[in-house]
Write a structure and sequence with these properties.
377 residues; alpha+beta; Phosphorylase Kinase, domain 1; Transferase(Phosphotransferase), domain 1; 3-stranded antiparallel beta sheet
Amino acid sequence: MRYRLMNPLAGGAVRLGFDQLAHRDVAIRALPEDAVPAARLAMALRHACIVPVLDVVTGPEGTWLVTEFVEGSSLEQTVLTRRPLPPIQVARVGVCLLSALEAAHAAGIAHGRVNPAKVLLAGSGRALLNGFGLPPTGLQPAADLWSLAATMHFALEGRPPGTDPATGADPLRTLIRAMLDQTNPPALETVSLALHDIAENRPAPEPPAPSEPPPLYEPPFPLQPAAELAGVDRPLDRIVGTAGPLPPEQVAAIGLAVLDRLAARHECGLRHGDIRPSTILLDQSGQALLAPPEPVADPAYTAPEGSRTPASDLWSLGATLFTAVEGHPPAPGAPLNRAGALAPVLFRLLSGDPAQRPTPDILREDLQAIANSWQHV
């Protein structure tokens, strides 16, 4: 057997294991048979703030879910055994978790169990979301965002929000209360920008009064820039608007990353339905992530046949790459002045006939050939 079971973890529901092939520690738990499809779909999730599902093993004794073993404490343990976290640290945890949920939702996966026990605080300072691959709950992505707000509330106040969220006019408590309001929750981009602002603008602490002892609190993990922790930086439209059109090789690399993130959805017959520059996020190294669809469609990035099929996603990807390399959305007869070797690929992607667009495999080969000359700084 590849995996050797060792001592129990987390009250016995999870076992520490050892992968004798890869020579690494793993976490192993029993998995109901009806959860296997969801678990296998979760194996495709790879994100800096998600505990990856490594394997699903079926044998005489049942089915087992194998995940990476992460050294660290849960957010629940940290708050209960020490004390609530300061706002800047809660915001940085929130940045990580929101980034993880955006990646999962873009792949068609809702977590359904976001809570402080499912958040692991690694020694590096990164917060990781655990629990993907377990039986599906039937909850929608919007429920994950409410649970994220409740989790941040617990981290900040030491208790769940219940029916009485914490008062306070500071930006983080104001944001959490807005996220908990199911009648009029803020837009996802608003939440993301607000969390980044809070996480990156740490207020200077007020000096203690002479009669007060110095504070005893020590953060349970290092404070690092939120963009480093989450691996997510800015939307593509903001980058192009600030820096101007990007080189064809870089645009091809972005397209290749987005295509890879669409693959799991398309293999299941799903679509994204809203690929545009504002739903593509780039981290500090230039790697691209695909955010969830936005509430209102943008005609400039909607395929002629609408946004109903995986082929429509490819047209929208072509329109997005056109904008990235030319600086403006495509229009009938618009010339490609900057696209270089990317131009023929864009012409085929933007065909009005879905049958004339390249298949994902051919598109991947074309983009890879162009992107090979791009070096990330």
